[in-house]
C-alpha cells in the first residue's frame, strides 16, 4: 500500500476516534446533568407535597374539633329546647303531675233526708271551689280526672255538669296540688265554702295528701280568635 494513503487512513481513523470519544463524554455528562436536575425537582415537589399534607392534617384536626363542638352545641340546644318544651307543657297542663295537695269529694245530699231535688252540686259550686283553690296557690286541679285549664268549661247540663265538654256525674272528686295545709284551710275556714255547701246539704270531704296525682289535659287546646303576635 502507498505510504501516504496509509498515513491518511490512520490520521482519519484517529480523528474519528477522537470525535467519537468526545461525543460519548459529552453525552454522558449531559445525561448526568439531566438526572441531577430531575432529582432536585422531585425533591422540591416532595417537600411541597409533605407541606400540603401537613396543612391538610391540621385542617382536618381543626374541622374535627369544630364538628365535635357543633355536635355538642346541637345536643345542648336540643336539650334546652326539650326542657323548655316540658316547662311549657307543664304550665299548659298537657302533662300529668303529682305532688302534695288535697283530695276533695263533693256529694249531693241524700234524697231520703230532705226529699228529692232538695239540692245538688251545681256548676257554680264547682267553680267556687276551683277559684278558692287557685286563690290558695293550687298549681294543678282536676275534677273527676278532667284537668282544669284556663280555657276549661264548667257548665251545668241538666242533672249533670260538663267539664271540658265531658259529662260528669256526682260524686265530684276534685284533686289539687299545692300547699296541703293552706288549701285545706282555705276551704274549711269559718264561713267558707265547706260551711256554705254543708248548710245547703252538700257534703264536702277534704283530705290532705303528700302525693296527689293530677292527669294531663286530654283534649286539644283550640284558639279560633287569638293569633300570635309577630315581633318587630
Topology, element by element:
Elements: H1 3-92, E1 97-107, H2 111-114, H3 123-135, E2 140-143, E3 146-147, E4 154-157, E5 160-163, E6 166-168, E7 172-177, H4 180-188, H5 193-199, E8 203-214
Antiparallel strand pairs: 1-7, 1-8, 2-3, 2-7, 4-5, 5-6
**Average pLDDT score:** 83
* Weakly predicted, low-confidence segments: 26-31
* CATH architect. name of one domain: 2-Layer Sandwich
Span from first to last CA? Answer: 120 Å
What does this structure look like?
There is one protein chain. By secondary structure, this protein is an alpha+beta fold. The protein has a domain of 117 residues: Alpha-Beta Plaits (2-Layer Sandwich). Helices cover 53% and strands 20% of the residues. The chain has five helices and eight strands. The strands form two sheets. It has a five-stranded antiparallel beta sheet with strand order 3-2-7-1-8. A hairpin with a 2-residue loop joins strand 4 and strand 5. About 3% of the residues have low confidence.
In brief, what are we looking at here?
With 232 residues, this protein is of the alpha+beta class. It is built from five helices and eight strands, in the order H-E-H-H-E-E-E-E-E-E-H-H-E.
Question: Which tags fit this structure?
Answer:
five-stranded antiparallel β-sheet; 5 helices; alpha+beta; about 230 residues; about 55% helix; Alpha-Beta Plaits
